Amino acid sequence: MTRRYVRSLQDVPAYHPANHTGTTNRRLISPETVGARQIEVLHGTIEPGDGASRHAHPGIEQVCYVLDGEAEVEINGESARIGPGDCCFFPADTMHRLVVTGDRPLKVLVMYTPPYCEDPSKVLR
To answer: pTM above 0.90?
Structure first.
């Protein structure tokens, strides 16, 4: 069986995204990894007390699904705590931030549509 469209965490290199502290991401599904044109999926690990500074993505919607750990999210001025099994939506062009609140790393699946691909022109601070 071909693995052109199947990716595991060990298949893709880790990187540290801009506008984040204590964060290690692995891009699983993207234009570069499988040729996706409309979606990007990554796995993120964020250390306790760290996270993403307030920012927005012009024209890009973002979803975070929590696998493990806890965090506080702020979306357009509204705050909420999230944990395993919770999912949050960051609308396009909407300021948001995320900070890990628990004593263990946060593990999340992050989806962007269209793909963000860590392009500096696709983020507002």
So the answer is: yes
